[in-house]
Structures are given as C-alpha cells and as structure tokens.
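Example record for the data management plan.
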Amino acid sequence: MTFFLYSNILESLYPEIFLGFVAFGMLLMGRRVKNWMVYTTISIMALLISMILLILLDSGSQSFFGGAFVINNFGLYFALILITSSLYVSFTAGSELKHDPEIFFSIFLFVNIAMIIAAFSLNLIFIFIAFEGISVGTYILSAHGKTRRNLEASIKYFFTGVIATGFIVFGSSFYYLSTGTFNLVSVANAADIAKPSMLLALILLFVGFGFKLALVPLQQWAVDTYDGTKNPVSAFLSSGTKVLAFLIILRVFLVGFASMRTDVFYLFTIVSIITMTYGNFAALSENNLKRMLAYSSIAQAGYLILVLTVVSGSTSQFAFTVAIFAAMYYSLVYIFMKGGAFMATGAVNKEKVEINDLSGIGLKSPAFAISLGIMMLALAGIPPTAGFFAKYYLFLSLISGNLWYLAVIGILNSAISVFYYLRVIVVMFRPSSEEREFNLSNSILLPVIIGAVMSIGLSFLIFGYPYLSGIVAGLGVGA
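Corresponding structural encoding:
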C-alpha cells in the first residue's frame, strides 16, 4: 500500500523532476558550451515535454500530503498556461540574453518547477515555498545582464520582495493560530471561525501576495523593475508570474478565507477600484513605453481581482461560474497580449524606450506595427479581440452578481485606457522626423506576430464556457 502511495506521488511530480534534471544538465553543460541557441532549444523542448507530462497526469482530483497538493483540472489548466507563458518568452530570451545563457535558462526552468508546484498547492506552507522559489529565481533573472539598470531594478525588486515575504510569514502564522492548520480546504469546509487574529492574517497575507500582483499600494516595484530589466524578463514578470500571483490570491482568499467572505469582498472591492484607476491615470501621462506598459499591468491587475469581489460578494451560482471562467480566460489571453507588448519594445535599440521612438516603424515593418496594434487593441478591450471577450465575461459576472456599479467603474476605466493604447498605434504609423534603425529580426518579430494572432485567435475559446463546470469545481469553493 505504501509502495503504491509513493508511486502515485512520484508520478504526479514527473514534470517537475524532468525539468530539474534538465536544469542541472544545462549548468553542467555551461562549462563547455556557451552557444545561446543550444540552451534556447533545450529550454523550449524541455518545456514542451513538461506540458505533455502534465497533460498525461490523472487530473481526477488526486490529493497528496494530507490535501496540501491536489491534482485537478483547475490546477492543471493554470499549470499549462504558466508553461505556455514561459515557452512564449523563450523565443526571444536567448537572442537578447547571450551572456551566461546556461545560468539564465537553468534558473528559468527552476522557476517553472516552482510555478507548477504552486498551481497544485492548497496549503500555505507549500504555497509559500513555491512562491519563494519563484521570487528568488526572478530576483536573479532580473539582474541578468549585469548592467547598472539591471542591477538597480533587481535590488529594488529584491528588497520589496523580502518585506513581502515577512508579511506572508506573519500572515501564515496568524492563520495557523486562528485555524490550527495551514490547509486551505479544511478551513473552507469548516464552520465560521472569524476572529481578530484571522482578520489580521487576512490583511498580512493580502500585503504579502498583493505585492507580486502589483496591487496598489504595493505597485511601485513593478514599474521600476519592468523598466530596468531585459525585455524577455519584463515580459515574463508581467505575464507568467503575475498570472501565478493571481491564482494564489484566488485560492488563498476565496478558499482559505471562505468564512470571511464579507471582509474579502470589501477589501478587494476597494483595492480593485483604486488599482485600476491609478494604473490607467498614471499610464495616460507616461512617455516611457515600458513604464506605460507597467502602469497598464497594474490596471489589468485591478480588473483581474474584480473576480474576487464577485465570488465573495454574490450568491448567484451563474455569476460565480462566469467570474471563474473570466479569470481563466483572461489569464490565458493576458499572457500573449501583455507579454507580446513587452517583447515588442526590443525593436527599439535603446535602454529607455520612449513611445515616440516607435514613429516610422509602421512604414518599415507593417507586420510588426499591425501586430503590436492588435495587442494594444486587445489590452484596451476592443472587439473582436480576445481582450474584449475577457472583459465582457468579467463585466457580465459583475452584473449577474448584482454588482453593476463595479461593472460601470470597470467600463469607464477601460474607456480611459483606450487613449494611451491608441497613442502607441498612432505614433507607429506616423512618419519619423529622423532616420531610425529598428531591430526587426525574427527573434523580435515572430513573438510579436504570435501575440497578435493569439490575441485574435483566442476569441474562439469563448465557446468553451459550457464545458467549465468540472474545472471550476477544482478551485475548492462554490457560490
């Protein structure tokens, strides 16, 4: 019996074990091989194989370690899109990060191991360990390149992240004092346990995990870090790790604090309104392209956490299901429209890329300009892009849950965002007053085109809504 138990646990960890072996192998190869194309290829192949291993997992809600690690369709969905975000970034990472490629890609794979573990975790200890594994890895990735700007961005990210870690530890401690367990599901199924210490745990964990999602007032690190790191790292931080942070927040606050839905509702209602409004207004006056995209990411985080207000503040099963569908759909679309936009900044050969630096690129490469324009429209939520349908389902869930005032605020914020996204499109097709050289190599152009194609193509996934009942159940909480 014990043998079969350990055998099942080992099988569930095959993707992580495989990526670990490949990552160590690349470190050993680094003593003899320094060709970045070799490591890019190995990384892409390893991520593809790990996706296959994940798909082959028996996702019929297997539970290990006393319910701390649960293999189900909900976790599998997010694990797959997190790997997808890494695959997407890998296309351009090697060509931009030729210095010590074996170190970059081995750490990159270790971060992916932690992301997969986090996607299936329903225990604060497991989540914390995986979360810190991702954080430490991304601190190193942020500094890769070793320029003054890279190191400054990494240091800001590191010190803010260390403070956030302290809040997570304290929050988890108070959570255990209140409930007697770190297991989120057992608390979700328990009777009402709201206590002053539980409320303190709620606030502390919000600060800790809200940092990674760049929620106001924990957002400034994101602007400085995205601007100071290499473009592939910025793309990964703003897409893959942000989606993971959103998943963790969903599980921790909707499952672990199910007995405090009213508190969760008011907390995230206030934070979502402030976050989306701040991000949009800050982006309006920003001329630096990467910083504008960073403020846009903050606004997008504000939209995403509206899902928590629906699930915690509504008793409608329809609103609950639509909200979780919106979260899952938005997360997938977000990877391509935001990640692609950050990778597009590599077309300008400057450290600090201004929006006006894109002028004339529409004449030199219509494919690039049209592709980036499509991603800008998707981020703004303009039909028929997938970004429109993501926001449509999000606002539909708010209206269905009788939270129409939040839907109005969200729509008004989306309208504000149209101005700075359209500005980028207008500048790209405006003739340049000076001769500019753009980097339009395949390593830049291909990911941008893929991002545009996916920003349109993923619109067809809206027809997957009727098939979500089994996946939504994997969150661990219902309306």
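Summary line stored alongside the record: Residues 2-475 form one domain.
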